[in-house]
Amino acid sequence: MPTASDDSSPDSVPERARPGRPRKLSHERIVEAALAVIDRDGFAALSTRSLARELGTTGSTLYNYVSRIEDIEVEVLRILTSDIPLPTATTGAALRSELLNHLVAVRQLVFKHPHVPFPKIGSPSWNLLDQINARWYAALAPFVPEPHVVVLAYGALISAIVASAERERIWGERYRQPRSAQPYLQQVKLEGLEATLGALIDQLLPGLSRR
Question: The domain 10-79 is classified under which CATH number: 1.10.287.630, 3.40.50.300, 1.10.10.60, 3.20.20.80?
Fold first, then answer.
């Protein structure tokens, strides 16, 4: 007979590991479980089997609710990116402000969900992120001399904030300039992430501050 400290007690077994008849699965619960799998193990780990395990059910039961695992993956990503600002402005100064807000929001998302930027290339989730990229390419294109500059500049900005978010997530340190950069930044004040991102935008996309 189990004691209070016995790990074999039914109360000590996680819900997703308990055998028996599973509870009815709501769509919200399935999406939450999919997010848990992605957050813990990345996009590649999400499958019918891993999702069923997370929910404490079987693959055959899950098939009654989910016909394609890709649809759940995309829905998770769509929910996560729903609060990410997209471009609406048509003037340089206003678009610069929108881009800065966009980058800060993306960084916050990556900080909380570090696997978000890394779905499999060509997957539906990859295509969803690419649609966001395309919106920014189209909005920024009128303010740059060459089309390729848009892709390179936006990619550099996103890479910078992903690296910054990952550093803070691992070490708990907010953004700050490295010591080696100080001799090169004596004439400018770049205190904080937004100031640094603003300066980077002005260097990579100077056209945004000229109109």
Answer: 1.10.10.60
Amino acid at 146: E
Residue with tokens 């055959």: 60
Distance CA 97, CA 82 (A): 19
Q: How far apart are CA 79 and CA 106, in angstroms?
A: 13
- 11 backbone φψ class: left, alpha, beta (φ>0; ψ -120 to 50): alpha
Confidence (pTM): 0.81
* 92-136 tens-digit pLDDT: 999 999 999 999 999 999 999 999 999 999 999 999 999 999 999
| Pairwise CA distance, residues 160 & 65, whole Å | 39
Note the pLDDT tens digit of each residue in 128-179.
999 999 999 999 999 999 999 999 999 999 999 999 899 888 888 766 667 7
